[in-house]
């Protein structure tokens, strides 16, 4: 047996190398050949005004079956939620029901043109209006815009609303407070809106240090941006007092809705005292997440902020027909047309399919799954905050690094050999050698047990033979990369011999 065979767990499939499509086929192979015509049109050279290439393009000579097999193989090399467990903390990489995919592909939705008159898209407008009402109920915040294209875009929209509100009240404020456990997009959004970011620390329990928060609050603070549950997967029991302190200073409270899937149907940010929040439809409500989009980050706000929402907004007229209206003090459009409509259809289909009780059950299952896995791993890894978590939790490989020279990166790479995608690592930054795990509500008990078993086996290997982890992965199409170089100097272009 080779060392690769010795180091690969039995559950992990070994996938060998395959030739590039440029190296396949033969000069006589073709996929499609257009029939000759009796009345040929202008030549390609004439159509391009003489700007044709001086030599033939280096295209592969392959048959239709070669092409089909090529792309099927590429698909098999990709890891996704349909191929294995994907416990990527803070990103909610979960299985999404195909019902929502079928709904957004219905001709009445997929065939719409964004410039159609309102009279011809009554169904689409009604869907958006009904989705807005559902999100208002889930969040406890009645004003809704569906335009933002992603979570970070929703953050930006919310801070723009806050700025418009303060300016309308003759109150120019310059600072926004964020906790040290915040998502990385929060400080970026603060900067883009022209504010100065002020960081407050976490306390020993992973909550916001409320004493430090009170010291930072003054008449120059425009808002607090807070994720609850936070990035550590912990619900802050002080949240009502936190929002009250923010309001006492004349500031507004923003909830990063990235972790809504832990509390929907159980608690509402609006009831906690938040003035606005964004909701990641592409994480919580049945749109495949990742790959750069498309996404949707609707923003929900209090009645006081509703007049500043982006427009136009779907509204039901007195005549029973749907149309588009502009809020009185709207900040204007933040997205072309009505946002990423296909994502909105998926979300509405999901909400209708599971209902309010189903949304609550999804949250309960996500929390149960996370605590089950946390309990199974707490003895083998450091647990910085040993308390019940919500939908995700953070472990540390700090002890493995100190005692065995094994880092979180090594654990993550070795997990790939078990057919499981690694968790988020080195985030949040306040945890040394962080490993952020989110099992999600859609993973069955067998998958959770496999995840726990794999990580326990890796922890044991770290003590007995750490070199195994340093060399992992062994079963993936590509072995361990220089990740810095791969990100900054990717080699994505095939060059024929001689070039």
Low-confidence stretches: none
Helix-strand pattern: HHHHHHEHEHEHEHEHEHEEEHEHHEEHHH
Shape: globular
In CATH, the topology of the largest domain is named: Aspartate Aminotransferase, domain 2
Mean pLDDT across residues: 91
Q: CATH H-level name of the largest domain... which superfamily?
A: Type I PLP-dependent aspartate aminotransferase-like (Major domain)
Count of individual beta strands: 12
Main beta-sheet annotation:
7 strands, mixed
CATH class of the largest domain: Alpha Beta
What is the percent of helical residues?
A: 25-40%
- Portion in beta strands: 5-15%
Question: If you had to describe this structure to a student in words, what would you say it looks like?
Answer:
- The protein is of the alpha/beta class.
- It folds into two domains: 99-353, Type I PLP-dependent aspartate aminotransferase-like (Major domain) (Aspartate Aminotransferase, domain 2), CATH 3.40.640.10; 356-488, Aspartate Aminotransferase, domain 1 (Alpha-Beta Complex).
- It has helices at 3-7, 44-47, 64-77, 98-104, 107-110, 122-139, 151-168, 185-192, 210-216, 239-248, 269-272, 281-284, 341-377, 398-404, 408-416, 445-464, 466-471, 483-488; strands spanning 143-145, 175-179, 196-200, 221-227, 252-257, 276-279, 299-301, 313-316, 322-325, 393-396, 424-425, 434-437.
- The strands form three sheets. Strands 1-7-6-5-4-2-3 form a seven-stranded mixed β-sheet, sandwiched between helices.
């Amino acid at each position: 047996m080779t060392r690769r065979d010795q180091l690969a767990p039995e559950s992990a499939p070994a996938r060998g190398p395959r030739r590039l499509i440029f190296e396949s086929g033969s000069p006589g192979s073709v996929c499609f050949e257009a029939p000759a015509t009796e009345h040929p049109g202008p030549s390609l050279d004439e159509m391009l005004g003489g700007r044709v290439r001086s030599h033939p393009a280096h295209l592969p000579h392959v048959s239709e079956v070669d092409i089909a097999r090529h792309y099927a193989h590429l698909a098999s090399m990709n890891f996704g939620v349909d191929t294995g467990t994907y416990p990527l903390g803070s990103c909610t990489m979960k299985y999404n029901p195909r019902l929502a995919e079928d709904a957004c592909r219905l001709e009445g939705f997929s065939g719409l043109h964004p410039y159609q008159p309102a009279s011809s898209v009554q169904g689409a407008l009604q869907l958006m209006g009904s989705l807005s009402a559902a999100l208002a109920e889930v969040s406890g915040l009645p004003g809704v815009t569906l335009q933002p294209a992603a979570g970070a875009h929703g953050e930006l929209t919310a801070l723009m609303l806050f700025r418009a509100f303060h300016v309308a009240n003759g109150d120019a404020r310059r600072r926004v407070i964020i906790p040290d456990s915040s998502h990385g997009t929060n400080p970026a959004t603060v900067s883009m809106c022209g504010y100065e970011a002020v960081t407050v620390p976490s306390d020993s329990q992973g909550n916001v240090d409320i004493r430090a928060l009170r010291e930072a609050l003054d008449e120059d603070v425009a808002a607090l941006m807070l994720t609850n549950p936070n990035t550590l997967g912990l619900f802050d029991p002080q949240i009502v007092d936190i929002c009250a302190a923010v309001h006492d200073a004349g500031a507004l409270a923003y909830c990063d809705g990235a972790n809504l899937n832990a509390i929907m149907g159980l608690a509402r940010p609006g009831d906690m005292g938040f003035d606005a929040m964004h909701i990641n439809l592409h994480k919580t409500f049945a749109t495949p997440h990742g790959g750069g989009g498309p996404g949707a980050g609707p923003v929900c706000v209090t009645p006081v902020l509703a007049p500043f929402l982006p427009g136009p907004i779907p509204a039901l007229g007195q005549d029973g027909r749907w149309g588009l209206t502009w809020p009185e003090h709207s900040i204007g459009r933040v997205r072309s047309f009505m946002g990423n409509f296909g994502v909105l259809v998926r979300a509405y289909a999901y909400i209708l399919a599971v209902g309010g009780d189903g949304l609550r059950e999804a949250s309960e299952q996500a929390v149960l799954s996370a605590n089950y896995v946390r309990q199974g791993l707490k003895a083998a890894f450091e647990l910085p905050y040993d308390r019940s978590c919500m939908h995700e939790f953070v472990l540390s490989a700090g002890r493995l690094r100190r005692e065995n020279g094994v880092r979180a990166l090594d654990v993550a790479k070795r997990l790939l050999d078990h057919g499981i995608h690694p968790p988020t690592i080195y985030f949040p930054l306040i945890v040394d050698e962080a490993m952020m795990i989110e099992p999600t509500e859609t993973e069955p008990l067998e998958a959770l047990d496999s995840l726990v078993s794999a990580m326990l086996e890796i922890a044991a290997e770290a003590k007995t033979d750490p070199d195994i982890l340093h060399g992992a992965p062994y079963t993936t199409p590509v072995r361990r990369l220089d990740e810095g170089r791969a990100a900054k100097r990717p080699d994505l272009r095939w060059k024929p011999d001689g070039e």
